[in-house]
Design a protein that fits this description.
Ubiquitin-like (UB roll), Creatine Kinase, Chain A, domain 2, alpha+beta, 2 domains, six-stranded mixed β-sheet
Length: 447
């Protein structure tokens, strides 16, 4: 088989940069990074025939009876790892997983997103994603002792972690991942780095790389980074707002329409897409917010919206239309504000994209925008009394809505859908049997 230009570049770079190991990266169904190392002499064969590994060792893949899997490296994702030595260097490539017969493996999250990208392509769209990924720095992994007491955009001695963030941004850019913004977030020791938008598949790869880089640089500085959605009860949690747009093959933003009668510069395509995001949000919540702890962030009084709503300048709605440069076509996008960074980005992006495309296909009607009303202080009960639907209140509710969703089965396929239902019901049932400190403090003495 003739080498592609990307594959040829990889082989030449490995030789010229003294690369001794190439790590093959992929994720399990939950979004945990998996990896094994391949020597440079194996690369040419790996491009053509894949590299075999035991799929039964990977969460959500297969059982021991049918465990042979092949990892095919994507040469376009080749990068030298900057935190490893220059001599005897280490590189990485993301992989697509296939069965021994050469078929795409239905349990591979990257394949699920690729399939959704192909659907968008068949409709004439290139989907772009731009996430804002938040995280905390803690003294160590044993607790939540913060490093500073800074707030939004602080640049003072309080922002103790400026050096960590700078090193992280430089490392990401060394790996070909452009960063748009980085700043201190609202909570003590909380930070945000926003990645410049790109196509959804490249961005999912970038999010996985980003999370690893943040942790690696933190470790190098002797501290601990956490993407847990809500590690501390009394401050805001970690979100991953995802900005989304669709471009056509002439590089025009199909969401942009300066003649929008509502004055939002949104095309009918964009409105149908938003309607899809809102309609199916309760069903894909399990993917954007996939742990028990995720639902501690989606509560009244927090910054994360849990009510099915949209608005222009209203930051308390589930979907917001950013208005920084309202008349620029390239800047027109929608922002989904419920996801958190503990999600598997491949599956979360696939679900968002699938919901939006379904809205376009079915020409779903968009409900009126909510402007000038702060919904964040209202309880779920008050929100429902006003006639708004809400996101699931708990992982238990989320998994049942997901289990019953025909769209989620269609987007993910039977394998991953069934696995997630089984695993998440098990997690919820386990949590239900746990007695918390809150219960002991409230009930032990009085009951």
């Amino acid at each position: 088989m003739a080498m592609s230009p990307d594959q040829d570049f990889v082989l030449k770079t490995v030789k010229s940069r003294d690369v001794h190991f190439v790590r093959f990266w992929f994720t399990d169904v939950m979004g945990n990074m998996k990896s094994f190392a391949v020597s440079p002499s194996e690369l040419e064969d790996a491009f053509e025939d894949g590299m075999g590994f035991d799929g039964s060792c990977v969460e959500g893949f297969v059982d021991a009876g049918e465990s042979d899997m092949l990892a095919f490296p994507d040469a376009s994702t080749f990068q030298i790892l900057p935190w490893r030595p220059d001599s005897n260097a280490v590189a990485r490539m993301f992989c697509t997983i296939k069965t021994p017969s050469g078929e795409p493996f239905s349990g591979d999250p990257r394949y699920i997103l690729q399939r959704m990208m192909n659907k968008a392509s068949s409709m004439g769209f290139i989907p772009n994603m731009g996430p804002e990924v938040e995280y905390f720095y803690f003294k160590d992994s044993k607790g939540t002792e913060v490093l500073d007491h800074g707030g939004y955009f602080d640049l003072t001695t309080l922002d103790y972690a400026s050096d960590l963030r700078r090193d992280t941004v430089l490392t990401l850019e060394n790996m070909g991942i452009p960063v748009e913004y980085s700043h201190h977030e609202g909570a003590p020791s909380q930070h945000e780095i926003d990645l410049r938008y790109s196509d959804a598949l490249s961005m999912a790869d970038a999010v996985m790389t980003y999370k690893l880089v943040v942790r690696e640089i933190a470790l190098k500085h002797g501290v601990f980074a956490s993407f847990m959605p809500k590690p501390m009860a009394d401050v805001s949690g970690n979100g991953m707002h995802v900005h989304q747009s669709l471009f056509d093959y002439d590089d025009h933003n199909v969401f942009f329409d300066p003649n929008d009668p509502l004055g939002y510069n949104l095309s009918s395509t964009a409105k149908h897409y938003i309607a899809g995001l809102l309609t199916y949000a309760p069903e894909y919540s399990l993917l954007t917010n996939q742990y028990v702890n995720s639902y501690k962030r989606l509560v009244s009084g927090g910054e994360a919206p849990f009510f099915i709503s949209w608005g222009h300048k209203n930051r308390t709605t589930l979907v917001r239309i950013p208005g920084y440069r309202p008349d620029r076509e390239v800047a027109c996008r929608v922002e989904l504000r419920s996801p958190d960074p503990s999600c598997n980005p491949y599956l979360a992006f696939a679900a968002m994209l699938g919901a939006g495309l379904k809205g376009i296909e079915d020409e779903l009607e968009l409900t009126p925008a909510i402007e000038g009303t702060d919904l964040s202080s209202m309880s779920r009960q008050e929100i429902r009394e006003k006639g708004y639907n809400t996101l699931p209140e708990s992982l238990g509710e989320a998994v049942e809505l997901f289990a019953a969703s025909d769209l989620m089965k269609e987007i993910l396929g039977e394998h991953i859908h069934r696995y997630l239902v089984e695993q998440k019901r098990r997690e919820w049932n386990s949590y239900q049997g746990f007695v918390s400190k809150w219960e002991l403090d409230r009930y032990l003495e009085v009951l």
